[in-house]
Amino acid sequence: EELVAKAIAPVKREYLRPPPLSNVVKEKKSKRQLKRERQQEQKSALHICPEVAKTGNVSSCRYNVNCRFSHDLEAFKAQKPADLEGNCPFCPYGLACRFSGTHKKKSSEMNGLTKDVQKLLWKNKMSFSRADAQLKLLGILQIQPLKKADVSLKLHPREKKLIDFRGKLYLAPLTTVGNLPFRRVCKALGADITCGEMAMCTNLLQGQASEWALLRRHSSEDLFGVQICGAYPDTVARTVDLIDHECTVDFIDINMGCPIDIVVNKGAGSSLLTKPMRMKNIIHAASGTVDKPITVKVRTGYFEGRNRIDSLIADISHWGASAVTIHGRSRQQRYSKLADWDYIYQCASKAPDVLQVLGNGDVFSYLDWDKHKSDCPALSTCMIARGSLIKPWIFTEIKEQRHWDISSGERLNILKDYVRCGLEHWGSDTKGVETTRHFLLEWLSYTYRYIPVGLLDVIPQRLNWRPPSYFGRNDLETLMASDSAADWIRISEMLLGKVPVGFTFAPKHKSNAYDRAENG
Fold first, then answer.
1. Of the residues 51, 102, 360, 428, which has the fewest C-beta atoms closer than 10 A?
2. So what EC number does this one have (predicted)?
């Protein structure tokens, strides 16, 4: 009881061990130094031209001597790292592939950015007729009169396509770690609804390939949405128009709760909670542009102690949103303290029948899920965020109504599935292997916080509990409990081979500082 009161996980005494000595953090490299290293790497024989690697023919590259990559096939073969075990999952990489198995040519992903669309966006020649017509109708945008053919007849809000979220297990959009391979793992473990990582509207409209990658969808994601974030009605409406035209999605979620400074300072994310008229115009413009359901994700308010979503809940429905997800914390609160579920219930009870209300915050066991659903029947479902990062089998636990004392071997198999999906998504050449490793390490910076059920004096584990230093029931379980990046790298080497010389890793999200996980 004393440990729980201090938010320290009550691990059984026989498994406890003294905390390890703190690791010395290496000095971070400057941007100039990193750029110089990248330029040197490109000149290396290991950085083979993709076209030459694919065909095995030096003359196949159209840039010839002007190509910034190496064309020295013999030098590449001499320096290429040893192949990884197993078969190639998906391969357009030819000689650069790190697998010696059969090459597959078919991808099961969709929502890619075509070169034609990218060029139109770069040249600012993309047509947004539906969005511009809606913005003009709302008096938000002054534009030239449109031809009759350009103005599409919009469905009445009640006739819009709807999604029934009730009772479904919803994997939250999670920045960095909620990538396509991770979502595939969660789908296999029981998630019903998945959503892409938050994408910035301005970056999508500029045709940035890295931002468009956040919209990609796997064929296994049968109920899938994308989450976008923007500060103004015109950029959001045009982004919604573009996504509806170029991508296959079931719903579009607008983020109005992201607490990150760089987003808030641009007037987007949770900054919108202080501007209800801007919220109205954004939701109104987006919902009037497309027939797909528009959903919204918010926090309780901007400032702690000054909740305001309950006063806007009916308006959010009238503005055209089909569903709203409420994260039970304010922007100022970030991820400190527990989520305020009583306030979420209050909002759900005030919502009109046509608006589905979803709750979000600290769901970490099937008991949490059951309690929220029974305490507030008006709640459609719960969104699961950080809990899924620490133990993605939470979806299995909820569906099977049990605490799963999962073994370290079973957890390693989940990591193997992730790596397989990662190599399919990011590629099986050296760059793809190292990208997969990077995102695996980002994920491991969360998973170490899981404490096996059999080691706890009190179950279930709570999301805000800090794990003490402990021994697992075998060496692998002990390794998986380590908070050291060196041990996470060891796990990655078990799955992806040795890291390159001089490799270092520091997690993007300091998940061990329990209030700083940067997820919208």
1. 102
2. 1.3.1.-
Amino acid at 362: D
Are both 242 and 315 inside the same structural domain? yes
The predicted model gives 244-263 an average pLDDT of 95
Q: Which among 11, 59, 20 is positioned nearest to 482, based on CA atoms?
A: 20
Residue 183, class by beta-carbon neighbours within 10 Å (0-12 exposed, 13-18 middle, 19+ buried)? buried
**What was the pLDDT predicted at 510?**
59
Selection from 390, 380, 374, 337 nearest residue 359 by Cα: 380
For 54-167, list the strands marked E by DSSP. Answer: 109-110
Q: Which residues are catalytic?
A: 258
Identify the CATH number of the domain in which residue 167 sits. 3.20.20.70
**Vertex 211 angle, CA 236 and 515, to 5°:** 85
Between 100 and 262, the higher pLDDT residue? 262
Alpha helix (H) ranges present in 84-168?
115-122, 129-137
SS3 434: helix
Nearby residues of 130 by Cβ (< 8 Å), 6 or more positions away: 152, 241, 289, 290
Within-domain flag for 34: no
The whole-model pTM stands at: 0.84
Please check whether residue 93 is in contact with residue 50, taking contact to mean a CB–CB distance below 8 angstroms.
Answer: yes
Per-residue pLDDT band at 420 (split at 50, 70, 90): very high
Instruction: Give the distance, in angstroms, between the CA of residue 254 and the centroid of all CA atoms in the same chain.
Output: 14
Cα–Cα nearest to 385, from 255, 264, 267: 255
Q: If you count them, how many residues does the chain have?
A: 520
Give me the chain's average pLDDT, please.
87
CA–CA dist 499, 304 (Å, integer):
44
Q: Which residues, 6 or more positions from 191, have their beta carbon under 8 angstroms from its beta carbon?
A: 169, 170, 171, 183, 384, 388, 395
Distance CA(309)–CA(311), nearest Å, equals 5
- Domain annotation covers residue 517: no
Calpha distance 199→252 (Å, rounded): 11
Residues 205 and 352 in one domain: yes
| 125-143 mean pLDDT | 83
Confidence class for position 306, pLDDT limits 50, 70, 90: confident
Q: Which residues face 93 on adjacent strands? A: none
State the burial class of residue 124 (Cβ atoms within 10 Å of its Cβ: 0-12, 13-18, 19+).
exposed
Q: Per residue in 134-144, is it b (16+ CB within 10 Å) or e — as a string? A: bbbeeebbeee
Q: pLDDT tens-digit profile of 344-381?
A: 999 999 999 999 999 999 999 999 999 999 999 999 99
DSSP helix/strand/coil, 67: coil
Bridge partner list, 227: 253
Which residue range is the domain that position 382 belongs to? 115-400
Handedness of CA 409, 414, 415, 420 (dihedral sign): positive
| Dihedral angle of Cα 251, 255, 258, 261, to the nearest 10 degrees | 130
The per-residue pLDDT for range 202-247, each reduced to its tens digit, is 999 999 999 999 999 999 999 999 999 999 999 999 999 999 999 9
